Every structure is written in C-alpha cells, then in structure tokens.
Amino acid sequence: MKYGRQISSGGVLYRSAADVYEVALIKPRGGRVYALPKGLIDAGEDPEETALREVREETGMDGEIISPLGYIRYYYYSREEDTRYFKLVHFFLLRYLGGSEKDHDREVEEVVWVPAQEALGLLAYKGEKEVLARALDILNEREDEGGDGREG
Ligand code: ATP
User: Fold this and answer.
1) From residue 16, how far is each of 126, 129, 130, 140, 152 by CA, in Å?
2) Are 47 and 40 in contact (CB under 8 A)?
3) 115 in a structural domain
4) Which helix (H) or strand (E) holds 45?
5) Residue 152 has pLDDT above 50, yes or no
6) Any residues with Cβ below 6 Å from ligand 1, and which?
C-alpha cells in the first residue's frame, strides 16, 4: 500500500429565503449522501480561488467569500490506487451571487437548496456538519450586529 496527501477547498454557499438561510448541497454522481461542494487545489491556486471555482463548477452558481470556516481532515483508502490518503479540506462561507443549480457539472447528480437546519441533518460527514454549524454561527452573529448577512 502507498500513502498520499491531498488538499482541497470548498464552500458553504448560502442565500436567504423567507425566514431562513438556505445552503446548497451536492450529491456526487453515484453517491448516496449529501456533501458540501469542494475539490482539489490546483497548482498556483490559493484556497479561496479553489473554493469559488469548485462551487461554480459543481453547483453552477457563483458566490463571494464572506469568511473562512477553517478546515477539516480525514483519511480514506483508494482501492484503484491502493493508496491511503490523508486529506485536508479548507472551507469558506460564500454568499450566493447568481447562477442556477441547473448548470451543475456532470460529476454531480443533484444540487439542492435546503434550509440550513435541514442541511445539518442531510450532510453525511461529521466534519462537514461542524463546518456548516460554524457558518450558521457566523451568519447569526452578523445578523445580531445588524450586518448584511440576510440581504440578497
Ligand atoms: P474532491 O471533492 O476533493 O475532489 P473526491 O471527490 O475525489 O475529492 P472525497 O470527497 O475526499 O474525494 O472522497 C474520498 C473518500 O473519502 C470517499 O470514500 C468519501 O466517502 C470519503 N469522505 C469524503 N468526505 C469525507 C469527510 N468529510 N470525512 C470522512 N470521509 C470523507
């Protein structure tokens, strides 16, 4: 068995709807679980650029960065490569600017906008749930401060 490292970056894309925030989740093709959009950082890219690019590619929608959300780490084994990967994924809070979830790429089976509380229950991985919880804390703080978190 070989060992490898991967670094990805992704986003919690949100918009406000009626009384709640909604966030965009993806279902990777062939997958059975919901996840946050993300992907490998390309050479020369910084994590912010990757988050914006991957969110655009995977969900078909554009966002602007509001805040960093830290990173998560996990290990997984790739059978095809007989490799055990250590993976680190940065995440950012992104405010929805435009575009349609219908324009998601072919690697993604489905993109859904769901109320944030529901999204907490749909996300499969503990690390991603924690990232979303952090995002909601930030949005609620912004609201308390009279920030513009609920606009647009
Ligand atoms: P990327 O989206 O960064 O291009 P990928 O789609 O190639 O990556 P991952 O999403 O990292 O790959 O999935 C690789 C393996 O790790 C899969 O078996 C997946 O179920 C698992 N995995 C994905 N995210 C997590 C997580 N947050 N915690 C634990 N395991 C995860």
Assistant:
1) 24, 19, 20, 12, 7
2) no
3) yes
4) none
5) no
6) 8, 38-40, 72, 74, 76, 87, 125, 127-128
Is residue 24, in this structure, part of any structural domain at all? yes
| Mean pLDDT, residues 71-96 taken together | 98
Per-residue pLDDT band for 148 (boundaries 50, 70, 90) equals low
* Residue 150 maps to a domain: no
Give the residue-averaged pLDDT of 123-139.
97
Q: Specify the CATH number for the domain of residue 139.
A: 3.90.79.10
Bigger pLDDT: 30 vs 59: 59
Atom of ligand 1 nearest to the CA of 128: 27
Question: Could you tell me the distance, in angstroms and rounded to a whole number, from the CA of residue 99 to the centre of ligand 1?
Answer: 25
| Structural domain span for residue 52 | 2-144
